[in-house]
């Protein structure tokens, strides 16, 4: 490995730093976008039960909002249940935008890495070509310098592509997962909103 890095020349260090950053972002998003952390199972039923028993106090809503992104949206639904339909809809959409921004954090960075890594590899290729042309003199070529130029060009090109492919794959994967979570949260927020609205409109016995 160290020999390969040495043969690839100094431009490979830019790609190594980029690869480490990309790997760190992928691991962070895997941990942050776990299903139980985003949309805990059974949370909607518990919130409906608490709200129907009149337990939607300030402290309860704060704990709910801090528990998960879904809890944050459901807490907003409970907090504005006494307002008009348009007000409730606007409040829920605003909370949803905040949650969407949180879930999409760092994902655009993976897209940037997928674009930049091949360009860094191309930069290494240019450096290698400079080494190749520098090996030719009027007296003849330097085989060692020629071989080093070829190594720099090929290693950097290959490593740049190797970084870009998984970065692009995980970028698409995380975007798809976030969209799925947002759909689930929107659906559950709508269910809770309708349940609370029906309870409020129901005549007392």
Amount of helix = over 70%
- Overall pLDDT score: 84
**N-C termini distance:** 77 Å
**SSE order, as H and E?**
HHHHHHHHEEH
- The number of helical segments is 9
What spatial order of strands do you see in the largest sheet? 1-2
Largest sheet: 2 strands, antiparallel
Global shape: rod-shaped
Whole-angstrom Rg: 27 Å
Structural description of this entry:
The chain is mostly helical and 205 residues long. It contains nine helices and two strands. The protein has a two-stranded antiparallel ribbon with strand order 1-2. The longest helix has 59 residues, at 143-201.
How are the SSEs ordered, and which strands pair?
Blueprint: H1 2-8, H2 11-32, H3 35-38, H4 43-52, H5 58-67, H6 69-79, H7 85-103, H8 107-134, E1 136-137, E2 140-141, H9 143-201
Antiparallel strand pairs: 1-2
Provide a short characterization of the protein structure.
This protein has 205 residues and is mainly alpha-helical. The chain has helices at 2-8, 11-32, 35-38, 43-52, 58-67, 69-79, 85-103, 107-134, 143-201, and strands at residues 136-137, 140-141. The longest helix has 59 residues, at 143-201.
């Amino acid at each position: 490995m160290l020999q390969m890095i040495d043969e690839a020349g100094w431009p490979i260090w830019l790609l190594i730093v980029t690869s480490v950053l990309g790997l760190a972002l992928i691991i962070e998003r895997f941990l942050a976008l776990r299903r139980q952390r985003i949309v805990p199972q059974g949370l909607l039923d518990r919130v409906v039960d608490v709200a129907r028993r009149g337990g939607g106090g300030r402290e309860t809503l704060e704990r709910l909002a801090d528990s998960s992104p879904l809890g944050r949206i459901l807490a907003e639904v409970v907090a504005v249940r006494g307002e008009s339909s348009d007000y409730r809809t606007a409040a829920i959409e605003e909370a949803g935008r905040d949650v969407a921004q949180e879930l999409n954090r760092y994902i655009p960075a993976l897209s940037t890495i997928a674009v930049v890594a091949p360009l860094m590899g191309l930069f290494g290729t240019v450096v290698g070509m400079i080494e190749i042309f520098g090996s030719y003199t009027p007296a003849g070529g330097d085989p060692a310098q020629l071989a080093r130029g070829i190594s720099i060009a090929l290693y950097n090109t290959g490593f740049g592509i190797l970084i870009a492919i998984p970065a692009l794959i995980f970028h698409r994967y995380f975007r798809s997962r976030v969209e799925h979570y947002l759909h689930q949260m929107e659906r559950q927020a709508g269910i809770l909103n309708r349940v609370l609205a029906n309870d409020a409109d129901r005549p007392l016995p």
